[in-house]
Amino acid sequence: MKMRAIPLLALLLAAPLYALQSEAPPPPPIPEPEPLPPKVQDPDEQVLPEVNIRREEDRDVEEYSINGVVYMIRIVPDVGPAYYLIDTTGDGNFDSQMQHDQLAPVRPAHWKIREW
């Protein structure tokens, strides 16, 4: 029995050596990386908005503009929350955006827990 096991053991040990000696196919070529997209703006060259603040009767009005074009107006009344008028289309018509509307279109659910 031992005599049969020796050739079998030698064959099992030689098989990995034979596999290492056979030539493996060459690996596929590495593709060239895609070029990076160009930078939009350097941080030093960013266009900062110009802000004009004026006081009206019962509120402060802040006008935000870039290159002389007003794109947003923030109105801070003496009483109540601040609100914004934003030109979303660039046509000069301002849409109202209240602070509580910033969550739109998400509306939190309300449940009645107790009633008196």
TrEMBL record:
Residues 1-19 form the signal peptide. Residues 22-44 are annotated as: Disordered. Keywords: Signal. This is Uncharacterized protein. InterPro entries: DUF2782. Pfam families: DUF2782. Residues 24-40 have a biased composition (Pro residues).
